[in-house]
Amino acid sequence: MYRFKGFDSAECGDNMSVLETVINAWMEAEHPRIRHVCQSMRGEHILLSFVYEDTRELEQRVATSAQTGVTGGYPRFFDDELVDERPTSPRIPATPPPMH
What we know:
Blueprint: E1 2-8, H1 16-30, E2 33-42, E3 45-53, H2 55-68, E4 70-71, E5 74-75
Antiparallel strand pairs: 1-3, 2-3, 4-5
């Protein structure tokens, strides 16, 4: 599940060092898998927005799927030894025939 987190430089007195420290502390504590970052202005202040996945939730889903044999939320239904018994169809040529 995607989540949103925003940081406003106004909350840090517009001190970039403090803003960096706050963001780094969040990243170290949460270990987010960041999917999108946006920087915008709000008057004289900088807004940083993150769309991320919570890695703990992601790890939990992976662990659950490994236990149940379900990958990506879908059961595995392809058998490696399954033989396709359908008649073969003519192959499509890699290059189209020349145009006249």
